[in-house]
Design a protein that fits this description.
This protein has about 550 residues and is of the alpha/beta class. The chain is about 45% helix and about 15% strand.
């Protein structure tokens, strides 16, 4: 053991007495998260015995001390209590069912909170997921994604109504640039005052945000104009609207840093403290009965990053990209294999299907696929030309041969048939606006590129759209040489427990270092563990 100490005051004194002994295995002591660690003056670890915290005493001096820290103690305690969780750990909702029913169930079994990836799915498919999860999880906590759909407002409204009707109590609001009436309607459904006088809101919103101006809207009460609309519609009573003016739209916001999918590529070390400070400012202004909580997403796929998130004050952590590589995800074996080989730099930004016309991008895997290049080419053509017919012959041939594998005319007929079922108003608009018609055709390719990946369509591998952030590469580097290196061994519960146990161990090591201990490498690292090894420390 090469531990050294800088000059520091004694934290107290230790005596072996009848049951005490000393150990040189500091790394093992830190792993025993249910037991405190006492580092003695001769750089040994005290096990058992008697401890006296005082400036003077008998026995060996305690030079550094780390309290017991089970992973269930990390994060915001009220967050865990309100949502009924063992861990302040959330599995984010990856669209098109990538965050599958199986993934949500696995996260729940591991003591965390999982969100089903409803974005991009037909309402009937979403309802099928509701049926399954209500049957398999019952009253245990889980949630569904609710994505902003500016191009399809009727769909957004229909999904909100579905969640209200089916009693879905938690949604992860994603890609919102501001508040919408369906979102506010969902949040306030059933609001009432309890017997103790407190305001009760059955529905909880987790707002995934990366901008202060957007976070501000979620952390303030719903706008008076929207409340008036809901009262006029008969959805809220006047009394309910008055209650709504006393609560934030979201009690849980997630500071989304550089992540897969929709992202502003913000650095977590800047974003998390900013959102916590904003929360504190607005709490001081509105004096809510319950202070909103701030979680962290984007880049959290190793114990080191999870430890850092909690150290910065995050109330909970949200994982994303790493879950897609787990066997329970709704993706394909081909994609899981590609993700397991990704490095941190193997990602790129590409136009988003749902916000194509707005120029919004998503972060995707660039290794093993041409999708980022092809998606950017489509947006370039959209910006340059006013209709499909005005696209130059050379570009037209490229689209038909390499991208669509059919004529533009046939592709439009296929697209028209799709929107005839999903949103007929899109076709009506396309008949009047050739540029909108072009956007729908291009969006069709972008949307199907994700489905080709999820279904593992080998013939379309070059077109796979795989949402992915640099966290995936970080996880792969950390897992190299362990059981978790191979995608077929990655189970969501095992990944979650490794991240949370590792974060607790590393936090304890940091306690010792902050008291002047120069720790050996084996005490400042955490390697992936098997299920049996994890169970020995978590009792899981």
């Amino acid at each position: 053991m090469t531990t050294t100490m800088t000059q520091t005051a004694s934290q107290g004194f230790w005596q072996a007495q009848d049951n005490g002994k000393e150990s040189s295995d500091l790394a093992q002591a830190l792993l025993n998260v249910s037991q405190p660690v006492f580092l003695l003056e001769d750089l040994k670890v005290a096990l058992g015995g008697a401890v006296t915290f005082s400036a003077r005493g008998e026995g060996k001096k305690i030079l550094a001390f780390a309290p017991a820290l089970h992973p269930s103690a990390l994060g915001d305690q009220e967050f865990r209590r309100i949502h009924g969780l063992q861990y302040a750990y959330v599995q984010g909702a990856m669209a098109n069912g990538i965050a599958s029913e199986e993934l949500v169930e696995a996260t729940s079994a591991a003591g965390g909170l999982g969100f089903f990836g409803a974005a991009g799915l037909d309402p009937k498919r979403v309802e099928k997921a509701i049926d399954r999860l209500q049957g398999s999880l019952g009253d245990r906590p889980y949630g569904f994604n609710f994505i902003h759909s500016p191009s399809e407002p009727d769909l957004e409204a229909a999904i909100a109504d579905l969640y209200i009707q089916r009693g879905i109590r938690r949604i992860e609001a994603a890609a919102f640039l501001g508040l919408t009436l369906p979102l506010v309607k969902y949040r306030l459904a059933g609001i009432h005052r309890g017997q103790d006088g407190s305001i009760i809101t059955p529905n909880q919103v987790f707002a995934k945000i990366s901008r202060v101006e957007v976070a501000t809207k979620f952390l303030t009460p719903a706008p008076d104009k929207m409340l008036a609309q809901l009262v006029e519609q008969g959805f809220l009573t006047t009394e309910q609207a008055e209650l709504a003016a006393q609560i934030p739209v979201a009690e849980d916001i997630t500071a989304e840093a550089d992540s897969g999918g929709h992202t502003d590529n913000r650095p977590a070390v800047c974003l998390i403290p900013t959102m916590i400070a904003l929360r504190d400012q607005l709490q001081a202004k509105f004096k809510y009965a319950r202070k909103p909580r701030v979680g962290a997403a984007g880049g959290f796929a190793t114990p080191y990053s999870v430890c850092a998130a909690f150290a910065m004050g995050a109330g909970f952590v949200v994982t994303g990209s790493v879950n897609q590589s787990c066997v329970e995800s709704g993706s394909s074996d081909i994609v899981r294999g590609m993700l397991a080989q990704a490095r941190q730099a193997d990602v790129a930004m590409a136009p988003a299907a749902d916000m194509f016309e707005m120029g919004v991008n998503v972060q995707v895997l660039k290794w093993g696929t041409m999708f980022p290049v092809r998606a950017k080419k489509l947006y370039e053509l959209y910006r340059r030309y006013d209709s499909l017919e005005s696209i130059p012959q050379a570009d037209r041939q490229m689209l038909e041969k390499d991208y669509l594998r059919t004529s533009l005319e046939q592709e439009w007929e296929n697209t028209r048939a799709f929107f005839a079922q999903r949103d007929p108003r899109q076709n009506e608009r396309a008949d009047k606006d050739p540029k909108h018609k072009m956007a729908l055709v291009f969006r069709s390719y972008l949307g199907r590129a994700s489905r080709w990946a999820n279904s593992g369509l080998e013939d379309r591998k070059v077109d796979f759209q795989i949402w992915c952030g640099p966290a995936m590469g970080a996880f792969n580097e950390w897992a190299k040489g362990s059981e978790l290196e191979k995608a077929e061994n990655r189970r969501a519960g095992l990944v979650a427990h490794n991240l949370m146990l590792g974060a607790a161990v590393l936090t304890r090591a940091n306690y010792l270092r902050q008291q002047g201990a120069d720790l050996p490498e084996e005490a400042t690292t955490f390697q992936p563990m098997t299920k049996d090894q994890i169970s020995a420390y978590l009792g899981a």
